[in-house]
Amino acid sequence: MTNQVFKDEMTNPKPHAYGFSNGRDNPSRLPLDPIEVAISDEGIDWTSYFDVEDMFGVHCYDWDIAQTNPVENWQKINTRDGQHLTSSSFDSRDITSTWEVIGNSEAEFRMLYAALHDFFMDRKGFWIVFGNEPSFKYRVKTKVFAPTYVNEKQATIVITFNNYTGMRESVGTSLEIFDKEKNFFSYGMGIPNKDISYESKEEKFSIYNPSSIDIDPLGQNHYLKIHIKGSGSPTLTNKTTGESFTYNRVLGENDELILDGVDPYLNGQPDGINSNHGTISLVKGDNEFEISGLTNSDIAFEFYFIYF
Question: CA-CA distance, 258 to 265, in Å (whole number)?
Fold first, then answer.
């Protein structure tokens, strides 16, 4: 379950370019409104630099929109005009951000600079969310710090992050996106203005994928969990793609079958041997589904929306 990324400003006043926040005095009078930034190892629990005590003199003021980086391989066939496209993918890309570090002394500046390093430097990658695009997260690895020193206690620092997945994702899953308390939904996510649900108790139903691309657990290792409850031996078919998953054992009313990517689990235990080893993907847009062999069915699709 994904937790809220940024705290509510009504209860947690944040720094601004003016000297108050929601009617409260705010001593951090800044030249511009800073951009809040939060990070997370797994995309579940989030930490904003606003909430790190040792980063009181550190602020982000800008970041560049990540540019999609397509990579194609072509083959020339001598007897044919032009070339033949043999493969296409999207490579990693850089996100450049601009930060200001201001201390009251050289010693304080060095402490703030070290705190900024500690916040972003990690042997592993992490998720990052920018406050002016709060519904989307990027999987990144910090590449380099490039400081421009104003004096011994102030510097502008350009921090470059490598978005190594080449994509951005929704912060919340399809089962969380409409949770009003967490503010995961925003306009521009490709979700049409109509009744959309990612759970169904019907034999025939539709699942909408608002992503820029297909959700493909087999080919791209995308996150997709399909939760199946009911009584019987289920067959789930995506009529749009022609894919089908069948579980051969009989489910009881207290059982839960989860197709986690390409691996089925019965009540938390791996049980691929009792399936047809089928996989399910979601094309961009509407996907028409049918569930058979199951009474009192309850199906839920849990996945992140993926965007360029």
Answer: 5
Least-confidence region, from 138-152, 179-193, 203-217: 179-193
Q: How far is it, in rounded angstroms, from Cα 170 to Cα 97?
A: 20
- Cβ–Cβ under 8 Å, residues 3 and 46: yes
Q: Please give the pLDDT value at position 18.
A: 66
Q: How far apart, in whole angstroms, are the C-alpha atoms of residue 49 and residue 307?
A: 25
Do 99 and 112 form a contact (C-beta atoms < 8 A)? no
Query: Do 210 and 300 fall within a single domain?
Result: yes
Q: Amino acid letter at 248?
A: N
In tens, the pLDDT along 202-259 reads: 999 999 999 999 999 999 999 999 999 999 999 999 999 999 999 999 999 999 999 9
Closest CA to 43 of 267, 308, 306, 260: 306
pLDDT tops 50 at residue 25: no
Chain CA centroid to CA 49, Å: 19
Answer yes or no: are the C-beta atoms of 21 and 191 closer than 8 Å: no
User: Is 182 contained in some domain?
Assistant: no
Distance between start and end Cα atoms, the chain: 24
Segment 7-11 shows an average pLDDT of: 81
pLDDT of residue 7: 87
CATH number at 92 reads: 2.40.30.200
Amino acid in position 193: N
Domain that holds residue 207: 189-307
Q: Quote the longest CA-to-CA distance of the chain.
A: 75
User: Looking at residue 12, what is its pLDDT?
Assistant: 79
Side-chain-side CA neighbours of 251 within 13 Å: the count stands at: 29
Burial of 114 (0-12, 13-18, 19+ CB in 10 A): exposed
